[in-house]
Write a structure and sequence with these properties.
With 237 residues, this protein is of the alpha+beta class. The protein is 27% helix and 33% strand. The chain has one domain: Gcn5-related N-acetyltransferase (GNAT) (Aminopeptidase), CATH 3.40.630. A hairpin with a 2-residue loop joins strand 7 and strand 8.
Length: 237
Amino acid sequence: MNLLKEFSIQDKCSYLEDKKQTTHYKIIQNCSKESSAELIERGFRRFGKMYFRPICSDCDECKSIKIDVENFTLSKSARRILKKAKEIRTYIQRPTISHEHIQLFEKYHLYMQTKKGWEYSPTSFENYHNSFVSGHNDFGYEVLYFFENKLIGVDLIDILPQGISSIYFYYDPDFSRYSLGKLSLYKQIQYAKKADKKWIYLGYYVKDCPSLSYKAEYSPYKTLQGRPDLHEDFKWI
């Protein structure tokens, strides 16, 4: 693991109003699959070559959460979503970038700005590449969702020794009838079961943040205790 830079930044909280957020960053060149897994198990997330986690001194509302794949059972509604999407094709490959990617990414975020009040700023090829293409090494992938020949969803994931780290998913809101967000997660769980992976790492659960509180619906799950350093053991309960 080649650590290029390490720093912390305090800014407005991304998840809770009227709160500040302190985030610890590690910029890592050529991070191995094993090293990435060690970081993810300790509550870090990856965007490109950047690994980060919240380290707020007066708040611990951001809980790293992972789904227990072995004991997860698809509900009737989950099976209906999978059945309804039988016309949707998926392909898995290394992360790429194209005009289709950027157009879909922009369309999704403009939609979420209207629907949920997300802050919006246009992305560029460089920004997208730095966040979702760079740093994937031998463990990062994208799952492309197609309806006929139209790209309608992109699921960015890391396939690690013990599980799948769900990085980011965006989709075409014109195809919301297929519940694409839920569909992508059910597809991850199905793949993990076949590949004998134990966990789906979902990032952060924040009880009072609607964009993140839904994660508790996917039980059974475990949450990380504390903020262990790389030299310390980690504990999920």
